[in-house]
Amino acid sequence: MDSRGSVLSTADITGVVLLILHLIIGITAAIVISARRKPATAIAWIMAIIFIPYLGAIAFFLIGFGRLPRHRREKQLKVNELMHAASGINAHRARFDSPQWLIPTVAMNEKLGALAMVSGTSATLIGGYKQSLASMVRSVDKARSFVHVEFYILVNDETTGELFAALGRAVARGVQVRVLFDHLASLTLPRRKETIEELDRFGVQWQHMLPLKPLKGHWRRPDFRNHRKLLIVDGEVGFTGSQNLIDSTYLKPGNLRRGLHWKELMVRLEGPIVSELDAVFLTDWYSETGELLEGEKYRARQASIHHETPSEHQSRTVHELDAQVIPSGPSFENDNNLKLFVSLIHSAQRRVSITSPYFVPDEATLQAIVTAASRGLDVELFVSEVADQAMVYHAQRSYYTSLLSAGVKIYQYPSPTVLHSKHFSIDDQVAVIGSSNMDIRSFSLNMEVSLLVRGEGFVAEMRKVEDGYRNLSTPIDPKAWPHRPWREKILNSLARLTSALQ
User: Fold this and answer.
1) Rounded distance between C-alpha atoms, residue 53 and residue 153, angstroms
2) Residue 357 and residue 238 share a domain
3) pLDDT tens, 239-251?
4) Residue 2: phi, psi to the nearest 5?
5) Is residue 462 part of a domain?
6) Is residue 103 part of a domain?
7) Which of 182, 281, 335, 494 keeps 20 to 30 A from 328, CA to CA?
8) Are strands 237-241 and 118-126 parallel, antiparallel or unpaired?
């Protein structure tokens, strides 16, 4: 019969089948994706699947699932149940009545992350890159029992070499040294092979975090990262914050060519809070190795053998603080850090000061910040003038118009320094410091650790850090911002569209 007759051709049948398949995929996507996802995220994925047939669906099955596999989440639940008993921190549970609005936030954090707020914390801020590494070396050299090291990026280079040597000296003394670092992050950096060889030569126990090795049964969403940064010595002293274990240029040719280097903020801790940091390490060690280590119970001491005199780029040590560790990430059922950040910003009475190198907030965070400024609070945001990631750089700038219109002051830290610190302070008593950016990736895809601190002395020290940023930074003029070049506006808007695909 003629191909123009009533009988459908093979091509026609194929087209109808593909159309029906596309409709089925679209309807299924609308049902599956909408479940337990934020509306903006669900809509972004559904639109991608509808308008980019098949490729959108493939992308969703690769990176569209926002939680780790069930067995990993079950491990997290198991360790959550053991955390309190293992660390012995219940005896040091904090009791406070000021500010009163903080009490429900602390209770929420414990419900989501399993760790209580504890009293008796001593904390020292360290803003110098080499100074923080030197402080870690001094602590590791005093280790008697164990050293636990967990960093998103860990590279043995000229800058970090002395810390690696200190780990080797610790092993030689009979100290148990365990190291965790992110698998995929290490693949993109130089000296990966040399770093592993050095760890093996020293006799350090090490393990990749979130390994992506399908042939060995390690499969999950490939853009998940363990972004935590922490070091614990003997359960007595701990470090956390924004800094990775690598040279401040990250040794990348592009960074070296542009003269980029990273500015960080770390905090050195003593007291019961160190047991909470160690509980996070023990959880990740168990998740990656199947070995459930027993956490060392905190023991009150008259004087710490790890005490050190503050040096340049190091704040005075503030004692008798209340503090709480909040782990977050795709091993939890909730976005723990997101809920913490939003709760604190909504509770602020006078001032909110935020430092985040990658600022791509979700709707709840953006509205909390805008609302705080609209309430007449003094709200400021510190970001970098220059960036190492073009898409994030343009996406975050797309939010500045809303912030500036609400009265938020935005300060750009001068190039060629990338302000990589991650912290914020609320009023005069509360501050948060850790590994988490204020962006959608850190809220949902990265495993992060945040430290909530209550204490006027600590916030006063953080204010000095913020004052230093402000003195060096250039404020964005809210009147001039709308008149920036159209090319920049277009790039900002296009980059923002990708931020919801989480």
Assistant:
1) 36
2) no
3) 999 999 999 999 9
4) -60, 140
5) yes
6) no
7) 494
8) unpaired
User: What's the whole-number mean pLDDT along residues 282-305?
Assistant: 70
Q: What is the pLDDT of residue 81?
A: 64
Prior bond to 416 cis, omega within 30? Answer: yes
- 3-class DSSP state of 222: coil
Judge if 74 and 58 occupy the same domain.
Answer: no
CATH code for position 438: 3.30.870.10
Give the domain-ending residue among 320, 352, 379.
Answer: 320
Structure-token match 């204490």, residue found: 455
Burial of 478 (0-12, 13-18, 19+ CB in 10 A): middle
Q: How far apart are CA 354 and CA 201, in angstroms?
A: 42
Beta bridge partners of 449: 327
How many residues make up the chain in this entry? Answer: 502
Same domain, 290 and 371: no
Is residue 182 a contact partner of residue 156, using CB atoms and an 8 Å limit? no
Asked if residues 391 and 495 have their Cβ atoms less than 8 Å apart, the reply is: yes
Within 66-138, strands assigned E span: 118-126
Looking at the fold, whether 378 and 473 belong to one and the same domain comes out as yes
Smallest CA-to-CA distance from 412 within 402, 395, 400 is with 400
Domain boundaries, position 82:
70-93+121-320
